[in-house]
Amino acid sequence: MIQYYLAMNNKKTFTLFFILLCFCIALFLLKFLWFFSDTESDKIYKQGMEFYKKQDYQNAYYNFKKISFLSSYSFPALYRQATCAWELKDNKTAARKYSKFVRIYKYTDVAPEAIWKLALIELNRGHKNKALSYLNKLVDKYPDSDFAKAAAYQLGVIYSDEGKKKKAKEYFIEYIEYAPLGRYSIDVLNLLQEYNLSSLTDTDKFYIANAFYENGRYGRSLDILSEIPYETAWFLTAKNYDKLSDMDSFSRVVLKGVSVKPDKQVCDEKELLEMMALYIKKSGLNPKQAAYNLAVSSKGSLNYPLALFLLSKYIDFDSAIKNYEKIYTKYPKSIVAPDALWNVFWHYYKKEDYENALRLSKLYTNVYLDYNIQPKIMFWTAKIHMKAKKKKLAKSILHNISNNFPNSYYAFRANAILKNSKQPWHAKTDIKVKKNSSFRKFPLEKDTKEYRLLNKFAALDDFEAIQNFKINDPFLNSWLAAKGGRKSYSVLLARDAALADNFEISFSNPKYKLAYPIYFSDYINFYSKEYDAAPYLMLALMREESFFNSEAVSSTGAMGLMQVMPATAKVVDSALYDKNKLYKPEYNIMIGIKYFSHLMDIFNGNEALCVLAYNSGPGSVKKWLSQNKNKDFDEFIENVPYPETANYIKKVYTSYWVYMNIY
Question: What is the mean pLDDT of each run of 10 residues along the chain (663 residues)?
Fold first, then answer.
């Protein structure tokens, strides 16, 4: 009996061991097949893309179809099979492939394109009900996607053909509300001409008028706006008159419009401020008189602090300070209140009335959360405490700036003070700029099925597929623009997205490299060494001058990557015979860096003064220096009389600081 049990146990052990061995072998074989399949699939996919780019969709389809279901590239291949069948007008195959793709990626940002294609396929087949099902799904489930907007247009056309005018109108209005310059906007406007204006709501009319404005039909826009209450229509009316260069009508509308109650406004404070500034610029009046007119017209409304803020730029200093005090005390929620409070804070600081300056500093941090102004007031608050020998408190504030506002100019300055830097404005000349940004790493790090798919497309260099999905993520679109060679557009997209979220992320995050990329590194390094300049400072200068657009031309005529004036280039290179040579990246970089080296000679190696002079000219900087009696260079920068130049040096050193941190 004992021998029987031992035999049975040995048999069970052997069976378990055999099963485990088989499992390990199967797992090894599966991994081997997966690896082999991926290696082969990579070659097959890229070969398929070669055919696809040549518009040989038949051969492209067969290549994509060869990719094994075991491969991790099977789903990118499935999508590409669908797109090939679509291009070949093989509706049956395309529908089958897109349907499978949608089932797998339902409710993700990659699904709407496939659903849109399925809707169009069903329309072509004459299956209106199926098409309506897909179109309604787009509108209901993916309302923010570009394809939902296109679906609204298509639904409008279908219901219009069926004589369901009311329903058609709703979808047409929805389309032009979100896409006034969309692909179908002109078609929608033409179709809406059939509707009697009296049958439309004021909101409908406004969206139609806005679409006409966006499409350059200003007279037609004004006709429709005349049917809308003035409170709703005035802002767009003014924009139309501006485009038509009818400044008398523009001025009249703006002065009446700024008195409108805010609860009836159709624009935000920022837009209102820009409109008021435009009136001051274009009214033909003396700026002080124009600003005074705005203040008189808006008195009694919540637009008044905006006008008061603008007026303060053109009146005597004491009166301006009183206006600023009125703004932040009586209108603390206005968008200009933080700037107004800063102006008064700085006034007290310069008077050495530190008690009142600290009072305002405390008020600011308790009431406002403005990412641009807050670190500035904190920095100067720390300076007050340093003057009072309260070093521990000052250092605490500087650490706060460095930690909470890491990508700001004041973080750069706080860091220099905390490290007791002897040459805070001296950029490093011995650190070469790294190689050009390759952007191999995908900027989105969500661990989802959707983003794993997008990463596969990225690994396969199939950026067109990612673009087709029209995903509304600015960093993704910035990355795609960079991959497509649109350097300036890429940087601007990432910069604006960064401003929107204040870049509350680590410097190691790849999003930073999209906003602060490296281009033309070989030229920068070579000519920086040639003319003893700091490579990363030159890179920062280039970013702020042109955002890496080699074709850039400023309103004053500065050209190319480093925004060099032709006259300046002629001084630096007397042999220059054709100013268009400044569009050539290498030549422009050489001239820009050589000119900066020339400024270094003028200002005895003071790089900060050279940055100022690069923007405003050496004559202006010398004049400011002669008027400056204070030895604190931070105060000198803050007191630069041209706001554009004061902001310029801060932007350049912010870029330098960020570049040094991320690279």
Answer: 52 60 49 54 92 96 90 92 96 96 92 97 94 95 93 94 90 94 93 82 94 96 94 95 97 93 71 95 95 94 93 95 95 92 95 95 77 89 96 96 92 94 86 89 74 89 92 91 93 88 77 94 97 97 97 94 95 88 96 97 95 95 87 91 93 96 93
Collapsing DSSP states into helix, strand and coil, what is residue 314?
coil
Residues recorded for the chain: 663
402: number of Cβ within 10 Å: 19
DSSP state letter for 628: -
Under 8 Å between Cβ of 537 and 655: no
Q: How far is CA 360 from CA 154, 365, 404, 409, in A?
A: 57, 9, 20, 21
Tell me the DSSP string of 59-73: HHHHHHHTS-TTSTT
**Residue entry with tokens 């790089």:** 607
Helices (H), 437-581: 449-459, 463-468, 474-483, 487-501, 510-515, 521-530, 535-546, 566-572
Residue 553, classed as helix, strand or coil, is: strand
Catalytic residues: 545
Half-sphere exposure of 491 (CA within 13 A, CB side): 18
**pLDDT at position 9, please?**
56
Q: What are phi and psi of 531, to 5 degrees?
A: -115, 20
Of 224, 226, 256, 254, nearest in space to 239 by CA: 254
Q: Would you say 559 and 582 are in contact if contact means Cβ atoms under 8 Å apart?
A: yes
Strand partners, 553: 559
Cβ neighbours around 506 below 10 Å, total: 11
> According to the model, what pLDDT value does residue 34 have?
41
CB-based contact 78:111 (threshold 8 Å): no
Task: Give the C-alpha separation, 525 to 205, whole Å.
Answer: 57
Say what the pLDDT of residue 29 is: 43
> Which two three-digit tokens encode residue 456?
């596969």
User: Six-digit token pair at 11?
Assistant: 């048999």
Contact residues for 442 (Cβ-Cβ < 8 A; gap 6+): 451, 454, 455, 458, 479, 510
Give the C-alpha distances (Å, rounded to integers) separating 611 from 582, 592, 598. 20, 12, 12
Q: Is the dihedral of CA 113, 115, 116, 122 positive or negative?
A: positive
Q: Which of 186, 185, 153 is nearest to 170 (CA)?
A: 153
Query: Identity (one letter) of the amino acid at 650?
Result: K
Do 607 and 600 meet the contact criterion of CB atoms below 8 Å apart? yes
If we measure between CA atoms, which residue out of 586, 546, 588 comes closest to residue 564? 588
Alpha carbons 227 and 644: distance in angstroms, whole number: 42
Which SS3 state, helix, strand or coil, does residue 573 take? coil
Instruction: Tokens for 229, please give them.
Output: 């209450």
Q: Which residues of 371-388 are buried (b: 16+ CB within 10 A; e: fewer)?
A: bebbbbbbbbbbbbbbee
Q: Using CA atoms, how far apart are residues 409 and 416, in angstroms rounded to an integer?
A: 11
Q: How far is residue 155 CA from its own chain's centroid?
A: 32
Cβ atoms 297, 258 nearer than 8 A: yes
pLDDT at residue 10, rounded to an integer = 59
The residue type at 500: A
Q: Are 650 and 608 in contact (CB under 8 A)?
A: no
- The predicted structure's pLDDT at residue 37: 56
Helix (H) or strand (E) holding 582: none
Closest CA to 364 of 405, 332, 391, 320: 332
Query: With 0-12 CB in 10 A as exposed, 13-18 as middle and 19+ as buried, what is 652?
Result: buried
Give the DSSP H/E element, type plus range, for residue 117.
helix 111-125
The residue whose two tokens read 């080296």 is 597
Q: What pLDDT, on the 0 to 100 scale, is given for residue 365?
A: 73
